[in-house]
Design brief:
4-stranded mixed sheet; alpha+beta; 43% helix; two-stranded antiparallel ribbon; 6 strands; 6 helices
């Protein structure tokens, strides 16, 4: 498919989305040159209408948007780019330009952090140390955390319950990594069951 740039301006709107948590980060515009430069350098570059020139996001702040993937919508007149932000996206210092500060999607960021600690063999990391103890010890730890969650569920201390739920989720993510799976794989199974 070919992008349909506007006949008058030569621009196309581009939505930027965080590749991990799927938050919409910002909206910008590209001309063909900006699009080509983005694909070539793997850093998102826009055509700035106010500056009347190409503008690579982060060129002054260092908060680049690393290109992960891109798609064109059904009308071929809007581009969706998934990117890895290298800091706040908005010039106001916030994560997104839409003031959408939410914890939804954080589990994917946590999954990536866990994976990085294991993949980079971080010797100081509890996560990596537990991973290196093997699948039996890791599965045992997940079982212990599940029991602790069940015990707290029977009481009435919401803070303790939520902390045990967080512990279980964290260790579950390590177990998924050890088994070679991701949250996306689990979601796929759940989605199939819901049909």
């Amino acid at each position: 498919m070919t992008i349909k740039f506007d006949n008058n301006t030569g621009l196309v709107p581009v939505i930027i989305q965080d590749h991990l948590n799927r938050k919409v980060l910002m909206l910008g515009y590209m001309n063909q040159e900006a699009f080509d430069k983005t694909l070539q350098e793997k850093k998102v570059t826009f055509f700035s209408r106010s500056k009347n020139r190409l503008w690579t996001k982060g060129e002054t702040s260092g908060h680049y948007l690393e290109l992960i993937d891109w798609k064109i919508d059904c009308d071929q007149d809007t581009v969706l780019i998934t990117a890895k932000p290298m800091g706040p996206t908005c010039h106001n210092g916030t994560t997104t330009c839409f003031a959408e500060e939410t914890d939804k999607g954080f589990l994917y960021e946590l999954q990536q952090t866990i994976s990085n600690k294991i993949n980079h063999d971080d010797a100081t990391s509890y996560t990596n140390q537990l991973y290196k103890r093997g699948i039996n010890k890791l599965a045992q730890k997940v079982g212990e955390e599940a029991v602790e969650l069940v015990i707290e569920a029977k009481d009435h201390n919401d803070d303790l319950f939520l902390n045990e739920a967080a512990d279980l989720m964290y260790h579950y993510l390590i177990l998924l990594k050890a088994k070679g799976f991701t949250l996306e794989a689990v979601e796929k199974v759940l989605k199939a069951r819901s049909k």
